[in-house]
Amino acid sequence: MRKSLLFALAATVFAAVPAAAQSFTEGFFLDGYKLAYKYNPAIRNEGDILSLAQWQGLARSNFGASSFLYPTEGKIVTALHPSVGAEQFLGSLRDDNWLSNSFNFGVASYGWRRGDDYHTLELNVRGDMAASMPKELFSILKLGSVETAYDLSGLRAFGNFYAEVAYGWSHKVSDWLSFGVRPKLLIGLASADYNVNEFTLSMNEDKYTATVGADLDLTSGWRKIGVNEDGNLDFNPLALSARDRWKLPSGIGLAADMGVLITPVEGLSISLSVLDLGGLLWHYGNAGQSGGTVTFEGVTDLSIEEIQGGELAGQFTQLKDDFLGSLTLKAGEKKGAFKAIPFTSNAAVRWDLPFYRPLSIGATGTYSKMEGMEYADGRFVLAWNPCNWLGVTANVGYGSFGLGWGAALTVGCNGFHLNAGLQEDCGGRMPYGGSHLTPFNSTLTVGLTYDL
Amino acid sequence: MNPLYKKALPLAFLVGSLLLAGCVNWDYDTEGKGVSTEVTLFGDEIAVPVGSIGPVTLGSLLDKLLASGGTLSLISDYIKVDEDGMLYMEDEGDLYSINVYEIEKSQGDVSSPFIWDAGSPYASPGGPALILSYIGLCVTNQTVNLSFSNPFYIDVPVSCQASVQCLDASWMYSYESDFATMEKLSGGGGAFGSFALPADINDAVSAIYLSDLKFDMPANPVTRLSDKNGNSVLSIQYKHRCGLGVGPTFALNNLEIELDDLGLEIGKYNLHSGTVTLEVENTLPIAFTLEKVEVLKPVVADDAPEGSLEVDENISVTEGLRIDGGTPDMPAMSTLKIDLGAAEGTIPDIKDVRLTLSVAAQEGLEPIAITASQGLYVKSSSARLSGGFTIPE
């Protein structure tokens, strides 16, 4: 009774703790971590386990706050402040600047062992969100119209939320080889994707020309967005019409995790895995397109009196309105679209030191990709598992965004195992809010399992 | 509880806290230091198409030019615009006028028809037109129309030799010509004669003569009046009309034109310099030289009258820009590049600007009539701002 109460209380606490994660690479080095099969489906536990409210989250970006904020004497200025040089600001950005956030909430997991096989069953809720901005957008603001034409396409913001029902199977082929697969049924909950696929801007003293084309894909699991008399999606106020006829989930899909675990000699383990190969076919009941070309060649036959009356300023206001008008979304036909979920490939080597088995050294390599946003790193790992209720690990490595470090801990008591892990960059954070100052890859995992 | 367990947990939390705390960079303490929202946009340069301005026609400029006083203000009332947009001046008056009763009194015996010798009357029209020559403008397409008023109910034969004379700017006769008139005056009134001077005569008509004017009067002329209680005056009137043109000697120097209430509130953007480029089309046969452009600012002195302005010496504007003259068929295009800059600090709000202009006939152009629709047209314009503009906190 007390164990159940403790378990429920812990689940509630952890449910309130936001976290970010991808795959818990440190789990491979912690003997007390019971969910290592999420990292590699070939990994098996000794006994049956139950997990509730496992939180994993990941935040990643190829730019940091120090690209936009600059401390000076006694104050902090923005990148557009006159004291910040253009080279200093724009040199800190990439051609495509993106920020992503993913979470994986393990609603429930159950694992059981039968002979040489280990089975798992999971229900997770996952989400992936990202936004990207081209560097040229900032280049225009900082430098002005020095280029003949700017290509600002690539502005994008999207979010996909889905449930995952996974069945995992790990089989011990021999003393040194195990393999595992985990097919997953993906049930789409909601998806939104705003993509500016065309945005060219030309600014010279004769004419401004902006050609814009954007798409909005939005699922309509609950309601359809209304359409006004001009045929545009009506967001102001958000006019929701009757439920869309498509009554099934907003999307459906399949994915799979695969992995092998090789132990050529005692104490040496090699893990290779690929996670989340697959995607969802989304039904976008709300779809919109915007586009058009806006040109501004200045005013036409403005009189001196009209200039004196402020008409010149009025013409620029009209230009702004025309541009915003080209971004207005016209309701489009329903459509389906397949979108891959972010996938990860991992490799790890662990060697338990023969002279002191609780101490392990190893290395990991990770590559992940989400919609063109790539990340890779390699780490050196040191782990210590002195007993069956304690394990700690630390790592340091180098990745797409520079130096990084990580640490993880698992603590057990009466069959409960608390695990927590953190990966961070070395660029530092801002006080209070904790925003990363440099490009970062930040993961946080918190979970609780119980040995059945 | 295992002793190692008791020590390990607090140690783990301590290490974790230290790790996280050590990553915080207090240089970025936005709450303590605050974030300045001052931004400078388009730091290298920004080019802005301003567009077309105008046209500023002679008709619209006329009020401004005439209000500036001087010689032009004297003739302001006489300049009109016809249905074709042509500028013209018109003057009318009496060439000869006499009351029939006076004729009878002077003649004495009117019991039989007689010849009334009116002599050689003349009139001097174009007084306002003559003034044009003082400033180099000239007249074109002159016409003289004569009309008569005949109080009799019968026709009155008449004879005379009508002629016009023109004087040049030196008051020398430059042109004279005879023209035909009617040989009788019908009852009532009507046209007596008309004459159109050749188009290349650019000196104003100074006199209209009716040499040896004689009327064949009937006996007892008073008894022939249509209305004995009405009109009893026998008269010949003239109407002189001429178009305006630009002569080769036309020149006006240092005309000052103030453009007020421009409302260019650019001071807050901390601009240092900029260039305005204008492509100007000129259909007037007049070349304009922008001698000076002065930005005016309020006088800051305790004893200064309210609203008084002075030149802001800190702001420099390109001087000596020229707009070539052209014609409606062959407009002249000129590119003006006006650099505006602040010697110290930034360019303030611009509310009033004084333009000092010189205008002169375009060299090589023949005198040509000008219309109210001719003028200046900024076909395209653009601004190029260097150094960005700053939006303060």
Structural account:
The complex is a heterodimer of chains A (452) and B (393). By secondary structure, chain A is mainly beta. Chain A is 11% helix and 55% strand. In chain A, the strands form 2 sheets. Chain A has a 19-stranded antiparallel β-sheet that branches. In chain A, a hairpin with a 5-residue loop joins strand 10 and strand 11. The two termini of chain A are 14 Å apart. In chain B, 13% of the residues lie in helices and 49% in strands. The model of chain B has no long low-confidence stretch (mean pLDDT 83). Chain B is elongated and about 130 Å long. Chain B has 393 residues and is mainly β. In chain B, strands 3, 4, 17, 20, 22 and 25 form a 6-stranded antiparallel β-sheet that branches. In chain B, strands 5, 6, 9, 13, 15 and 24 form a 6-stranded antiparallel β-sheet that branches. In chain B, a hairpin with a 5-residue loop joins strand 5 and strand 6. The chains are: A mainly beta (452), B mainly beta (393). Strand 3 of chain A pairs parallel with strand 1 of chain B, so a sheet runs across the interface.
Quick overview:
Chain A is 11% helix and 55% strand. Chain A has 452 residues and is mainly β. The model of chain A is unreliable at 1-22 (pLDDT under 50).
Per-chain topology:
The complex is a heterodimer of chains A (452) and B (393).
Chain A: H1 2-15, E1 49-61, E2 69-72, E3 75-78, H2 86-90, E4 96-114, E5 117-134, H3 135-143, E6 150-151, E7 155-172, E8 177-203, E9 208-218, E10 251-262, E11 268-284, E12 286-296, E13 299-302, H4 304-308, H5 311-326, E14 330-331, E15 335-340, E16 343-352, E17 359-370, E18 373-387, E19 390-399, E20 402-413, E21 416-425, E22 440-451
Antiparallel strand pairs in A: 1-22, 2-3, 4-5, 5-7, 6-8, 7-8, 8-9, 8-10, 9-12, 10-11, 11-15, 11-16, 12-14, 16-17, 17-18, 18-19, 19-20, 20-21, 21-22
Chain B: H1 3-22, H2 30-33, E1 35-36, E2 39-41, E3 45-49, E4 51-57, H3 58-67, H4 71-74, E5 79-81, E6 87-99, H5 100-107, E7 114-119, E8 122-123, H6 127-132, E9 137-150, E10 156-167, E11 173-179, E12 184-185, E13 188-196, E14 205-217, E15 233-246, E16 251-259, E17 273-282, E18 286-298, E19 309-311, E20 315-317, E21 321-323, E22 332-342, E23 352-361, E24 368-369, E25 375-386, E26 389-391
Antiparallel strand pairs in B: 2-26, 3-25, 4-25, 5-6, 6-15, 7-14, 8-14, 9-13, 9-15, 10-11, 10-12, 10-14, 15-24, 16-23, 17-22, 17-25, 18-19, 18-21, 18-23, 20-22
